[in-house]
Backbone:
């Protein structure tokens, strides 16, 4: 299929009818629906579907860095480039194939990207739906044949929620975090669950491998399971920041929360021929 900007999108559907849509623009998941057709990811009504914008919503992939790094664009170039379908990906781990509905993509950096970030890398992404309708993303990043390089990465996931004031996140308690609202100063999470009354922009460090987002009003919980992604970004722009973001509606902060599986605090370094794999699996379950 094609989006309104003519960019190719791949529709994945599992036998029970759960679905996901992946755009070749940015290798970005733009939709993940239950078998009843309920949309689980947030996308802004003001999202701009063409380069140089990353679509405001779904799961933008921040690579080769999260945040700012020299003259690279914010959150790196991967989410703003055209990916291609990878016709013959190297074999994945057997249990990575349990979804019938999957797509393999390959990042195509521009010459200019390689001038700024001169590393011969390969970034292969597999997106698939499991039989239960969970959404799984596997990134495999390889140093083909050059001197060691380092990168950080985040799956900047916009979850659709009913009301940010009725949401709590569990699994981050007692962890340290860098607070982007205080010059990335380091704090320790005191609460036993994270709730939201104002802008939050943090990276929790060395997190556990399961994070839960409880949407009280919709009586459901998202679970984020991750491997190779030790950190968790949490972001809600709240009122003031929302108004300052051109591709974000003034009131939309109430219906979204970003909780991002990431590797940020300790960038990953790959020597020649080495490969890194990062896995993220999202599921949603009823929760009273
Ligand atoms: O989620 C962390 C963050 O760096 C926030 O500060 C905010 O800028 C967000 O990413 C979105 O960034 P973007 O470049 O997509 O507008």
Residues:
């Amino acid at each position: 299929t094609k989006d309104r900007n003519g960019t190719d999108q791949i529709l994945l559907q599992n036998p029970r009818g759960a679905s996901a849509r992946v755009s070749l623009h940015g290798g970005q998941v733009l939709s993940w629906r239950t078998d009843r057709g309920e949309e689980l990811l947030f996308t802004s009504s003001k999202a701009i579907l063409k380069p140089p914008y990353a679509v405001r919503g779904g799961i933008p992939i921040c690579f080769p860095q999260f945040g700012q790094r020299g003259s690279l664009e914010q959150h790196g170039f991967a989410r703003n480039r055209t990916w291609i379908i990878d016709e013959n990906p190297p074999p994945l781990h057997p249990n990575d194939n349990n979804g019938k509905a999957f797509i393999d993509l390959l990042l195509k950096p521009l010459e200019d990207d390689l001038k700024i970030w001169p590393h011969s890398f390969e970034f292969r992404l597999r997106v698939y739906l499991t039989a239960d309708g969970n959404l799984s993303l596997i990134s495999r990043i390889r140093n083909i044949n050059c001197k060691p390089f380092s990168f950080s990465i985040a799956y900047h996931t916009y979850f659709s929620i009913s009301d940010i004031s009725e949401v709590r996140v569990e699994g981050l308690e007692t962890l340290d975090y860098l607070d982007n609202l205080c010059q990335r100063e380091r704090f320790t999470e005191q609460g036993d669950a994270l709730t939201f009354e104002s802008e939050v922009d943090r990276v929790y460090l060395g997190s556990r491998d399961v994070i839960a987002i409880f949407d009280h009003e919709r009586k459901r919980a998202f679970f984020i399971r991750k491997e190779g992604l030790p950190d968790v970004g949490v972001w809600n722009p709240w009122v003031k920041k929302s108004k300052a973001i051109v591709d974000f509606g003034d009131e939309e902060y109430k219906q979204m929360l970003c909780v991002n599986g990431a590797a940020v605090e300790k960038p990953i370094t790959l020597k020649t021929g080495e490969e890194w794999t990062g896995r993220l699996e999202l599921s949603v379950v009823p929760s009273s």
About this structure: The chain has two helices and 19 strands. The two ends are 37 Å apart (CA to CA). The domain at 2-286 is CATH 2.70.98.10 (Beta-galactosidase; Chain A, domain 5).
